[in-house]
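Class prep. Sample record?

___
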Amino acid sequence: MTTKAEVRQQGLAAREGEPDRDGASRAIQARVIALPEFAAASTILTYIGVRTEVATDAIVTESARRRKRIAAPYVTPGGLRAAFIEGRGDLVPARFGLVEPADRIKQDPLRDCPPGEVDLFVVPGLAFDRSGGRAGFGRAYYDRLLAGANPGALFVALCFHSQLVASVPMIDHDIPMHLIVTERETIRPLSDK
């Protein structure tokens, strides 16, 4: 049986080796924007793609254009929190090569975004399987954030098709994804959503 560490390595290698990262990212974002669930969502929390991750700029831009509430996560000593943003102009470089809401946004209590207010979460990761399994970097930041979501919220993972693996070993606190969107397909492992 493949370990989660091996799955992470496999997914990271696939992501780093993606030959057409920009083209695939554009295709993935177009698929997300075309989802009926995206159209129906009034509040979207999306990671901000950096380095070799699937980009999310078009999702942020289209959410703003449609006047949706947009939130972006940021790292705190206690885990991930999120703040409402109006667009890319509210984001700045942060630790670990991340891009996060600017301090003035994070410190504004009116910009705080509790997970329970989010309709659709756009989630990154290293490897995914067709059952909704997700492997991140192993710190459970997103699992803890998603644990606070309301029961009707949708979890949408973005990945390159090459990041799909046969199986991601899951443990109790791992939260499965409702949709996995690649440049080739949209996978709906949890069809009750």
Notes: The longest helix spans residues 21-34.
